[in-house]
Specification:
This protein has four helices and no strands. It is mainly alpha-helical. It has one domain. InterPro entries: TM2, TM2D1-3-like.
Length: about 100
């Protein structure tokens, strides 16, 4: 079974940014671990980074969602290929010989 990853919401990102952005919550939400840890340790780089993220949030969400869509498409392709392989193997072992 294939598990697909969900996309992130710009609304949720802005809520996290507004209330917990100094601690990097919005960056943790978007799985930007290195900068999230920097935000956590520096208070959003002393408020300046927090303010800059007001404008960067849409781009970060779009980038995350694009990556998720690509990963989901790859997972679907792998799952389809895996099912085709299993179907070919089962037919090979169960189908009558062509002799």
């Amino acid at each position: 079974m294939v598990k697909f990853e969900g996309e992130k919401s710009i609304g949720t990102t802005y809520i996290l940014w507004f209330f917990l952005g100094l601690f990097g919550a919005h960056r943790f939400y978007l799985r930007r671990w290195p900068t999230a840890i920097v935000w956590l340790l520096t208070g959003g780089i002393f408020w300046i980074g927090w303010l800059v993220d007001l404008f960067l949030n849409p781009r970060m969400v779009d980038s995350y969602n694009k990556t998720v869509q690509e990963n989901n498409a790859n997972a679907m392709s792998i799952a389809i290929n895996d099912q085709n392989t299993k179907a070919n193997i089962s037919c090979f072992s169960e189908c009558a010989p062509l002799v």
